[in-house]
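Collaborator request, handled under Task 6.
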Amino acid sequence: MSSDSARRDDIRAVLSGVASLSRMLSSAQKRPFEGMVLSGSQLAVLFHLAHETTGVTPGRLSKLLGVTPGAVTQLIDGLHRAGHVDIRVSPDDARSRIVALSPTAREEVEGFEAATAKRLEPHFASLSSPELATLAQLMGRIRPVGTA
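Structure tokens returned to the collaborator:
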């Protein structure tokens, strides 16, 4: 088997694991911002921002999500109108903006993630703590093509 073929087989195995995890996530009884209709892209923005302590530029969000800057602008505008994100002028460049979770949204997303991690913890029981840390680190390196 060629190394390209073996690599594709490994990617298929990863996809299978991600699909299983996705089913576990979608079976959650609670979603963040219960009662509000948020798109998958809006939720992705909120979850990315939850892991950024100082906020990010719309350009960085565009790269993280693998979408156009215009799409990010629409996502941010809707989330800002709903009170989920705060937008401020960058201290480094007055032409640039910094997007961050509002305090209420941060509390909601962090609470949801904590409850979900607790609920899913038994599914990761077969992994040692170092293996789980490695998996988390490796998954964090997967990005849309063309991003850092």
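The cover message to the collaborator said: "Helices lie at 3-26, 40-50, 58-65, 69-81, 103-120, 129-140. The two ends are 31 Å apart (CA to CA). Please let us know whether this matches your experimental observations."
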